[in-house]
């Protein structure tokens, strides 16, 4: 029984790994188009979720509608998804700047914690401080050169995805071969 479960799980894992390898190749070959497709997919999920909440509100019994936020949630989520779809290229262009600001702010806060740790002997605070400085530099690069940074991050993500999924694929095939020999 467990053997059949493991076989089915590994076959499913091979399918998912294969699909993710294809996604990784697409990220490498066409990083900007990949980002646009991802934003469109996210917008579609929001629109479907919003419509579902909107319809759900009218399906509820009257006494449950008194406490339901599905109507407003549905309208706001559908509008947000629609705006994301309409302004997808603007969002893609501004995303690295937002990410850069977030990286800088979060690492400035962590830098303060690293400096606070300097009072504790053996805390490796200097290593943490150097890491935060490097992350702040990354944030500045994202802000000052957003387009190139975005393409580099997407390409890097594609590379890591391919490497991770090839390893997963090899592992799944190995497990299936071992299960067959049992």
Folded structure, characterized:
With 182 residues, the chain is an all-alpha fold. Helices cover 90% and strands 0% of the residues. The protein has 7 helices and no strands. The longest helix is centred in the last third of the chain and has 35 residues.
Give a short overview.
This protein has helices at residues 2-29, 31-59, 62-65, 70-86, 88-117, 125-144, 146-180. The protein is mostly helical and 182 residues long.
Features:
single chain; 182 residues; mainly alpha; 7 helices; extended
Topology:
Elements lengths: L1 H28 L1 H29 L2 H4 L4 H17 L1 H30 L7 H20 L1 H35 L2
Helix pairs in contact: 1-2, 1-7, 2-4, 2-7, 5-6, 5-7, 6-7
Number of helices: 7
Average pLDDT score: 90
Order of helices and strands: HHHHHHH
Ranges where pLDDT stays below 50 over 5 or more residues in a row are none
């Amino acid at each position: 029984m467990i053997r059949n479960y493991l076989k089915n799980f590994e076959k499913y894992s091979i399918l998912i790994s294969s699909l993710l390898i294809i996604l990784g190749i697409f990220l490498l070959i066409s990083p900007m188009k990949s980002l646009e497709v991802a934003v469109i997919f996210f917008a579609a999920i929001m629109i479907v979720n919003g419509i579902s909440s909107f319809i759900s509100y009218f399906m509820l019994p009257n006494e449950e509608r008194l406490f339901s936020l599905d109507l407003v949630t549905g309208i706001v989520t559908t509008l947000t998804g629609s705006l994301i779809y309409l302004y997808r290229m603007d969002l893609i262009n501004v995303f690295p700047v937002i990410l850069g600001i977030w990286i800088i702010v979060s690492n400035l806060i962590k830098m303060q914690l690293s400096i606070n740790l300097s009072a504790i002997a053996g805390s490796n605070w200097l290593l943490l401080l150097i890491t935060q400085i490097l992350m702040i530099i990354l944030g500045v690069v994202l802000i000052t050169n957003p387009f190139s940074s975005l393409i580099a991050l997407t390409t890097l993500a594609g590379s890591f995805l391919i490497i991770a999924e090839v390893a997963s694929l090899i592992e799944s095939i190995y497990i299936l071969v071992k299960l067959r020999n049992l």
